[in-house]
Amino acid sequence: MSLFTRLSSSYFFYFAILGLISPYLSVFLDSKGFTSLELGEIFAILTATKIIAPSLWAILADRTGQQLLIIRLGALLALLSFVLLFWLDNYWAISICLALFSLFWTAILPQLEVLTLNSVRCSNKIYARIRLWGSLGFIVLAIFAGQVMAFYQEDDLSSATNSSFTNAFVLMGCAVLLLLLFSTLSLKSRHVINKATRQALSIKEKLLEFRFIIFFISGILLQISFGPYYGFFALFLRDLEYPGFAVGLFISLGVLAEILVFIFASSFFKHFSLKSLLTFSLAVTALRWFLVALYADSAWVLAFTQLIHAASFALFHSASMIFISSHFSPCQQSRGQAIYLGGVYGVGGAIGAYLAGALWLDGLGATTAFLTASVAAFLAALLIKFLPSKNT
Q: What is the pTM of this model?
């Protein structure tokens, strides 16, 4: 099995589980009888684990040089945590279970990103080609899970109250996590850092640089804007009376656009500055949430907003990886990735999830939630304009 295949398969299954959780966890929790505020709290708890956990795992990785062992351990423990959902119904029990799952699942990506970038010698083109398999994994499971849910719910998400629905959700998650574990067993470490190098260079100065602070806060605002989308999009489409299979299709449309960006990412970076691409991504994301808030009842407008996901996620993510790779030294990469993922996705995601839950009001506040998201993304676009032009 080639290096490309081994890395691509790990990305495929890692993001496949996200293709299940991101659209359908809210539906799973709704079937348990939780309110929208409780959903927001659970999503906030789930996301908050990303604040500290990635950094703790990264410190361990940098000190031991055992990125691959941490990837495998994270996959195993995430699987064991997710299995517990078969037997849980209580609010706090489910919250703790999902928090444990996230605690271990978040150990994987920072180390996988470092392993991949080192393996391909930081080639933007090869990295993007490998990373797009993560998008394919997301889209495959989003569509498949949508069909499974529709089968049990007779194309009506609001009827998801039986054990068959909840069992199907957990079973799919366990199957994908098991495949992820198997895929990590085929990985090989291509880069070893000696002990002296691992102990060198504090990361504090890099974190306090003005350009990193601007980049970091903008990323947090972007993730806050994703709160209503990640937490309530499936329920939102249900309330707009879209058929059950449409959830997977609309989300998959966004990921298809995302894949095209990953394929052609190297061309964008040849012709545009990093700062310009970051600004564009944030600005069109603000437009995206504005249109969703006011015109989501139009399938054509909704489809257009999903195409913008190519910039909202794929372009911003690719630019972010390049920024982090160039900003931190080789022996700081794991910690840099973890702080970015923990701070941006953890803090931003937790705030966004909680705000979305508070504003949603069981669907009555959907417009307000998405308009608030639009404002957050717009503020991020304005802030990134202050990013120093040097090396961007």
A: 0.72
